[in-house]
Write a structure and sequence with these properties.
By secondary structure, the protein is low in regular secondary structure. It contains ten helices and six strands; from the N terminus they run αααααααααββββαββ. The relative contact order is 0.05.
Length: 535
């Protein structure tokens, strides 16, 4: 049968039906299609396709189930469609008339589900389920030599001498990727080379879950898993040295960190692919997904790496550090599961996860916010940039332990917010014996900088604010850290002094006009942990 089908490709002039098949001159639309429409369409139409079967077109009527089960099989007198027409199926089908049954039976058995009269092609030429005669299979066995087709349909297969365009069915082109596999949207099955679409088949499986935009990642291109040809005829695609390649397509995926990637076709599972368990994270809960178990939670969030991964502490807000990989709070960016760890901050920089420009201090905070009324934003910049002009800039390590690496202890390995005044931070804040505290509930702190310490804590001036709110306003006005002048018992030399008198004793810290001295490099002796007196 295959040799005869291949011979049919050689030309189109004067050929007639051969192979001993019935003449079958009626077209599907004029003959058996009308029988199926009148008898079956009430249940099997485009709007009511019971059992997922339709008779509103030829291809629908001859279509197999997604798993390959035949509804109408060429030459099979026991086909399901004939059983239904005889009323012998146990689902309530009623037998049709003998004349109609005879016509339907002849079409299935003798005419091999032929769609219309042919002068060249064999009966099963348009039936995807016909393993011997379907043109896709015949062409595949001919290593897709289209010369026989071009003899009748023209060099570009747009009509030729028979005025029948192959593009009427293959809109993307006869040699487009999705002509043989895939769908109208992309080249990933369904359908596979056998024209089947059941995701339980390893040749279909989770292709669409990967090549279409999903909840966990943007669409992957085919070359992530397969060597993808530039042109279908490329060596190694379906042919090698002009000979047809058989067997499954090789699966080649970037390896993870625990050895080489491997694909077990029999079990339909992969191991050590970067996409699943990229760090071999012990917190990951499902690192060997089953390719054919589509819709069975093979790749929920947390299956490839823990939420959070090991060493990340309990914070599950992944987008705080991996903002480029997220769209909002969903990991749908092309950068998620792309083979790299994409951080908001470039390597060696803090800016990106928090901060902006060349400053690591918020704004912006870890969630991309810049409202100073949030304690995660608050007065970070006023401290770091000395915006109030009452001191030199206050370095980050006065309030926090500054990590040297992303995964340094105390950085991302604990519950947010960041620790304030941990033991290894805050030399200036602890000056003069000040006891430093930070209350995350009220966003208030105590420190030397704001009037604590052995000496300044005695200041009874009413303007002193020893517990400023980090996210408040007007918290560091002149006179809020010590009075103007200070009112400390036993220090009568301050009595009656005004702001312009400060320079008399503290000329290195303040001008005669009462302005704090901060030099061009940002240095100041004011609020430096020492009482600077004299010239």
């Amino acid at each position: 049968m295959l040799l005869a089908a291949l011979a049919a490709l050689a030309g189109c002039e004067g050929r007639s039906q051969k192979l001993g098949q019935a003449k079958c001159d009626d077209s599907y639309a004029q003959g058996v299609g009308q029988v199926l429409q009148s008898r079956c369409a009430s249940c099997h139409s485009a709007t009511r396709a019971e059992a997922d079967y339709r008779v509103d077109s030829y291809l629908a009527a001859v279509a197999r189930r997604p798993d390959g089960t035949y509804r109408a099989r060429a030459g099979d007198d026991n086909s399901l469609v004939l059983q239904a027409a005889r009323g012998t199926l146990p689902t309530g089908h009623v037998a049709i008339s003998q004349a109609e049954l005879s016509e339907l039976q002849s079409w299935v058995v003798e005419c091999a589900l032929k769609p219309k009269p042919y002068t060249v092609h064999i009966n099963g030429w348009m039936d995807p389920g016909n393993g011997d005669q379907f043109h896709g299979r015949v062409l595949r066995q001919a290593v897709y030599d289209l010369s026989g087709c071009q003899a009748c349909h023209g060099e570009d297969l747009s009509g030729g001498s028979v005025n029948v365009s192959c593009q009427s069915c293959h809109a993307s082109g006869v040699m487009a990727c999705n002509t043989c596999h895939g769908n109208a949207a992309n080249a990933g099955p369904p359908r596979n080379l056998d024209y089947l679409s059941a995701t339980s088949l390893v040749t279909v499986g989770a292709h669409q879950a990967h090549v279409a935009d999903g909840a966990m990642h943007a669409a992957y291109s085919c070359e992530v898993c397969h060597t993808t040809p530039t042109h279908p005829q490329d060596e190694g695609h379906y042919q090698s040295g002009g000979k047809l390649l058989t067997g499954p397509a090789p699966v080649i995926v970037r390896s993870g960190f625990a050895g080489q990637f491997s694909w077990d076709r029999n079990a339909a599972t992969c191991t050590n692919g970067y996409c699943h368990a990229p760090f071999q994270d012990p917190n990951a809960n499902f690192i060997t997904p089953v390719w054919t178990a589509v819709g069975q939670d093979q790749a929920p969030c947390g299956s490839c790496h823990g939420v959070p991964p090991e060493g990340h502490g309990p914070d599950t807000r992944c987008n705080t550090c991996h903002r480029p990989s997220f769209i909002g709070d969903q990991p749908r960016s092309p950068l998620h599961a792309n083979g790299e760890v994409n951080l908001a901050a470039p390597a060696g920089s803090c800016v990106g996860c928090h901060g902006s420009g060349d400053s690591p201090a918020p704004p912006v905070d870890l969630l991309g916010r810049s409202d100073p009324s949030l304690q995660t934003v608050g007065a970070h910049r006023p401290h770091l940039e000395a915006q109030h002009k009452v001191s030199a800039p206050v370095a980050c390590n006065e309030c926090h332990v500054v990590p040297t690496e992303l995964d340094s202890p105390g950085h991302i390995d604990h519950v947010p917010p960041a620790d304030v005044f941990p033991p290894d931070a805050g030399v200036l804040a602890r000056a003069d014996g000040a006891v430093v505290t930070y209350d995350p509930q009220t966003a208030t702190c105590t420190s030397y900088c704001h009037g604590s310490g052995a000496r300044l804590s005695q200041d009874t001036a009413p303007s002193v604010n020893r517990t400023p709110a980090f996210n408040g306003t007007g918290q560091a006005a002149c006179g809020s850290c010590h009075g103007i002048p200070p009112q400390i018992p036993g220090e009568s030399f301050h009595v009656g002094k005004t702001l312009t008198d400060c320079a008399g004793c503290h000329p290195r810290s303040v001008t005669s006009a009462g302005n704090i001295i901060v030099d061009a490099s940002g240095n100041s002796t004011h609020l430096n942990g020492v009482v600077d007196l004299g010239p």
